[in-house]
Amino acid sequence: MSSFSLTAVTFESIQNAQKAKAALNGADIYAGCCTLKIEYARPSRLNVIRNDNDSWDYTKPFLLRRERGKGRQRQAILGEHPSSYSDNGYGSHCPLLPLPGNNRFKRGSHDVPEVVAYPLPQTSSYMSHASSSVAMVSGLHPAKMNCTRIFNLFCLYGNIEKHAVIPSQVFELEDGSSSYKDFAMTRNNRFTSAGQASKNIIQPPSCVLHFYNVPPCISEDDLQRLCTEHDVPGFIKYKVFDAKPSSKTISGLLEFDSKTHAVEVLTVLNHYQIRIPNGSNPYTLKLCFSTSSHL
């Protein structure tokens, strides 16, 4: 009884795939046997989460081969688990996203942590990978954070291709979503062209959020209600910019009590789909940090 293996391969372009099929379809790996049969696959992309004997992504060298004795977990992207943490289990907070100096963010506290915290390990492993295009984020709330919400925050600073929660095996998060998500083709990436990138201002977190792409029928109360429904802090000040009579959307500013509140709201509500009665397509709420510190 003959046996065969089925393999899927992704090329850089359709043209390259066509050339490979034309050259290799019907060819024998060994003389008179192991004839290749090549067809076009239905999926347009392959989801490779590790480099091993069964799968390999040649564009992602950090998907390291699993070692024996390591169980099902692959080697961490930034090396082994850091040992030189401070007493609270983490290194110093990232200066880009400062947090209030209270006990809510310490590992020894029994309080519920915020949605996002921004500690970074102080290790030589981190420093040696400082130029990598892969960012490791720790201190995330296990029940409130997921791939989409991390994307909502990090997309302000560059295009996000993929996000995975360690360990590398894909699993279900507490909210029911997947621990892995590919964002390479999403329209919510904000640096996909030079013209689009020029409209973005790289701005560290502030108490004020700039909102835009909102339908004119949405009021201050509607936005406040949106915060309440998603269990995030409400804003304390609201300002809407004057729009042209022909404009189909409005924009404005929202001020919050703290940077932490603003970050939490942006993480949860950025790219929220606003649907209006009798509307054909939803409006995608866009949020970013404002250059203003107060209204």
UniProtKB/TrEMBL annotation:
Pfam families with a match to the protein in the record: RRM_10, RRM_5
Domain called Heterogeneous nuclear ribonucleoprotein L RRM: residue spans: 199-293
Top-level taxon: Eukaryota
Coiled coil feature spans: none
GO molecular function: nucleic acid binding
Protein name according to UniProt: Heterogeneous nuclear ribonucleo L-like protein
Taxonomic path: Eukaryota, Metazoa, Chordata, Craniata, Vertebrata
